[in-house]
Amino acid sequence: MSRYPFDWVDAFTDRPFGGNGCVVVHGADDLNVADRLALVRETSLSECAFVVGSEVADFGARYYLADKEILMAGHPTVATVVSLIDRGLVPLTDGRAEFTLEVRSGVLPIAVDHRAGRTMVVMTQPAPRFGRRVDPAAIAAMVSLEPGDILGTPQVVSTGTPFCITLVRDKPALRRARLDAALFHAMNPQGSARDDMVEPFLVTLGGETSAGDTFSRLLLPPPMPPEDPFTGSATGCMAGYLWHHRLIGEPRFVAEQGHWMGRPGRAEVEVLGPHEAPTGVRVGGRGYVLMRGELDLPAA
């Protein structure tokens, strides 16, 4: 029997059952891909994280959906770091630490503030890459909205994982959004490279609470859960889009997501660099370790 310690961490929240849950498995270098994917399906989470060694960073991590690996993801990054801190694997000085985490897309600088029993994780995502613009009517149809519900032109943006950032007119329209899986797969045929995918991240200006500046939804096709409670990688892409297109006046703001699912999440966001060419995005969030245990699998 092979045993792997794990933590179930709720990311982008400081309370249980908020934000977005992620199982973080430690010592996973020899855990095969089939078992990694099976664990995601077993948990019914959108993603799980697997801590591995790294030759170029202080720690390595790999992230998986139910059917494939992904290059970078925000809430698994927060969950992984919170798990590392909770297990005492990161040396702290006056409750703070800075280190690097290698994910499949590259190396992320990480800053941690762990004081008063609360852990704040800030990842610096790479400079946003601005890709293709997408017909607003096509995105509207994919999410069961009218073309007039979409403001401006949706655009694929990546800070490690690409999303099609789509500004929605108001919250009533955002509430009506429903993913048409057939149209999603028609635009993203099986076997499409991740960089070629058009995955809408729906954004409204104005938070769901008085503390927020934006509120978003990510609707997901099967075999994933129908909606993601909080999407840290897409939040970085969204921040780059809003700043680049001068849709926000300040580079620092609070992003909210998940409240309508009963899993409120919050990120503190800062876009680095000028409007014309942002140089990176800092996305920060807290995490709560909900469960700790061991994964038991038959020896290979």
How would you characterize this protein structure?
With 300 residues, this protein is of the alpha+beta class. The protein has two domains: 2-117 and 286-297, Roll (Diaminopimelate Epimerase, Chain A, domain 1); 129-285, Diaminopimelate Epimerase, Chain A, domain 1 (Roll), CATH 3.10.310.10. The chain is built from six helices and 17 strands. The protein has helices at residues 33-43, 74-86, 136-142, 171-176, 181-187, 232-244; strands at residues 2-11, 20-25, 48-52, 59-64, 69-70, 96-103, 106-115, 118-125, 129-133, 150-158, 162-168, 200-205, 214-219, 227-228, 252-257, 265-272, 280-297. The longest helix is centred in the N-terminal third of the chain and has 13 residues, at 74-86. The N and C termini lie close together (9 Å).
List keywords for this structure.
2 domains, globular, alpha+beta, 6 helices, 17 strands, single chain, Diaminopimelate Epimerase, Chain A, domain 1, eight-stranded mixed β-barrel, 300 residues
